[in-house]
Design goal:
It is a single chain. The protein is of the alpha/beta class and about 350 residues long. About 30% of the residues lie in helices and about 20% in strands. It is built from 13 helices and 16 strands. The strands form 4 sheets. Strands 1, 2, 3, 4, 7, 11, 12, 13 and 14 form a 9-stranded mixed β-sheet that branches. It has a 3-stranded antiparallel β-sheet with strand order 8-10-9, with helices on one face. The protein has a two-stranded antiparallel sheet with strand order 5-6. It is globular and about 60 Å long.
């Protein structure tokens, strides 16, 4: 039966600590916002989750990022349904901790394609129980042999958030175009979405890459918005076409400047590739990883303390240019990114 969304919600404003304590719990099924490890990953929320000792987390996601990397660094993730299990092309393509836990049988990995995961969240967003999608037809992604949750005996209907089947292959009934695949909707408990701005009633906005964060917000039962800044709701209504998430699906808003670091928030700050490379380097040795966690996760007294520890120079270097949306001070290879002298459209067209 399709899910019918009830009355609109009234978002509450919480601190980072309060939001994690209220919405995260052992065994929670959640989804994080952003694109790969480089764009709007709600890292501060994952950081506080690790500090509060939440375990056995079931992540349903489009791809890995700095959030899943951090959860895996302390073996806090038990099930991972995703389409890409790396975390950062320029930092370390493979999540070493995820690989280590998988080989030790400590985490279940359920693999879909990029398009399939997007379609699953679209189905969840519109309240459909499943959706047809044919792109990876014929691949082992649709081989029952690789149904990880099925092999683990978890498709028995006891957990309403785990579909009874990974997929169903059937003859397309309308156009005679051969077989197609039916995919179960993705319907996690909790969406954690990092944005640039949020109104005090919950309306949310970002600039730059959006991927399927809007669909995730509609697909999940609860939505927590982590915002660089909270502004009056009336301010968000001045340009409603620039808002992506409406207030009536949001449960809580957290103001957390630099909360997506080391990923980026376009027009606020850039991603910190050297910091991410240090994360990857630490993950390759358990002793080094413990030192990194002690220094950067368990050492700071708060997220504000974490940001202070980064240092003023790093924050200034990462600060985004108001025209391009990214830093023009950070080194890109051997040179800093070029400063924008004119709009790209003018540079390309000549007028």
């Amino acid at each position: 039966m399709a899910r019918i969304r009830g009355k609109s919600k009234k978002a509450e404003i919480l601190s980072l600590e309060e939001a994690v304590k209220k919405y995260m719990h052992n065994g929670v099924i959640c989804a994080f916002s952003g694109f790969t490890g480089f764009n709007r990953n709600p890292f501060a929320f994952a950081w506080e989750t690790v500090r509060q000792g939440i375990k056995d987390i079931h992540v349903i996601d489009r791809h890995g990022g700095v959030c899943t990397w951090l959860l895996n660094s302390v073996n806090a993730m038990k099930i991972y349904e995703t389409d890409w299990m790396g975390w950062g092309e320029m930092a370390g393509k493979i999540d070493i901790n995820l690989e280590r836990h998988y080989k030790a049988g400590k985490v279940i990995l359920e693999d879909y394609s990029h398009g399939a995961m997007a379609m699953r969240f679209l189905a969840g967003a519109i309240g459909a129980p499943f959706i047809p999608y044919s792109a990876p037809l014929g691949s082992d992604l649709y081989n029952p042999k690789y149904d990880a949750l099925g092999k683990a005996g978890m498709r028995d209907g006891k957990n309403p958030k785990i579909a009874k089947k990974k997929f169903i292959q059937m003859e397309e009934p309308f156009w005679g175009e051969g077989d197609t695949i039916l995919l179960p909707a993705a319907k996690p408990e909790l969406a954690i979405i990092h944005v640039a701005q949020a109104g005090d009633k919950g309306t949310a906005r970002w600039r730059g890459v959006g991927t399927i964060d809007k669909e995730i917000s509609f697909a999940c039962d609860k939505v927590v918005i982590i915002a660089e800044e909270i502004v009056p709701e009336a301010e968000m209504r001045k340009l409603p076409e620039t808002n992506q998430i409406p207030y009536f699906v949001v449960d809580a808003v957290v103001e957390c400047p630099w909360g997506a670091f080391p990923s980026s928030v376009p027009f606020y700050y850039d991603y910190d590739a050297p910091f991410m490379r240090d994360m990857d380097k630490a993950s390759r040795n358990p002793d080094d990883l413990k030192k990194w966690l002690d220094e950067w996760v368990f050492g700071p007294k708060s997220w504000e303390d974490f940001v202070v520890k980064l240092g003023a120079k790093k924050l200034l270097d990462l600060k985004a240019d108001s025209t391009t949306g990214y830093s023009v001070r950070m080194m890109r290879g051997k040179k800093p990114a070029p400063r924008m002298k004119m709009p790209l459209s003018v540079a390309r067209s000549g007028y």
